[in-house]
Amino acid sequence: MRTPAGPSFLTVPGPLPAARVRRRSDLPTPTVAAPATAPRAEPARHRSTARHRPLVVAGIPRSGTTWTKQVLEQDSTLVSIMEPDSEGYRAAAIRAKRDVGRFPVLRPGEWDEPYFRLWSWIVLGAPTTLRQRAAAGILRRTNPARRGAYFAGRPSPLMTAAGALADLPVDRVDPGLFRRGLLVKTVHAPLALEWVATEFDVDVLVVLRHPGSVLASWLEVRSPEQAVPFADDDRVLRLAASWGVRPPGPDRLERTVWQIGVLTTALRQALTRQPGWSVRTHEGLCADPVGGFRDLYQELGLTWTDEVAAYIGERDRPGTGYVTKRVASVLPGNWRTRLTPAERTELFRVLSWFPDSAGVDGD
Description:
Layout: E1 55-58, H1 65-72, E2 78-82, H2 91-96, H3 113-123, H4 130-140, H5 144-151, H6 157-165, E3 181-186, H7 193-199, E4 203-208, H8 211-221, H9 234-242, H10 252-273, E5 278-281, H11 282-287, H12 289-300, H13 306-315, H14 335-338, H15 341-351
Parallel strand pairs: 1-3, 1-4, 2-3, 4-5
Helix pairs in contact: 4-6, 10-15
């Protein structure tokens, strides 16, 4: 794993093996890994003839993955997909994740057929069908409040109808992948990322961000992730218990910090076991956006151009909410002023329950 110099608070725990930097042009074409258990009703294996393995850019919500995706997709040899595993973006994910939840918990060797089919479809470029287009029309009719209610576990006839209508074709490839590589951005797979990388032949780039910045962002945009019954999921509770982390109480802020702690810790723990994955911190990229992304382009075997640098510069301006324009240099550390003293105290109190305080011990 190659980890450029960056903020010490997000240093990945434990000693890591030497970097394994590989150019994507040297890698084999996308294939699905052999099943971990048998028998399985696997889809037809009509795989992409793209020149690269799919690249999965993974993080947690509001961690800088969208900005990273937007900069990487300036390489014209890539086809990018925005969160195809999110129920808010793709109706196909609604039905596929009905049993595993918003943040699936799956370890290598475990099995969930619908979630496997979802990712089989994703690595084929998430090709669209007439049924998916119709389902997308239904999904667009759901406003943020209705989607948030669905994520919170309350019924939503429109979301349910969209999920029932959408299909998952795994016998075709998106035509764009015959000449270009695939870039997939996800923020809902941190608890199943190793499973994805085991079941599918993909490269992984993890983007980490200080939990304080994530918390400040969640609170400011009123992220619907706060409504997810995350701490009520037995699978999540068992995962946290395996780290010696106790469940949160009923207080909403405590539960929100706890959720961010679980998602961040899962990624940090996975990185210690996966030396072949790439990793960047949002803070490190903000400190030197052009230099940081140029280095990342080189590591991933992408083609850096003056147009990419110009794009980064154009985005380096004030912005709020879900718009990805920001003055990068002021972002690292500004959570200290964005959070109230009480929120900062709660952040450190809850994260102290986690291994290495989820990377913010003493920060």
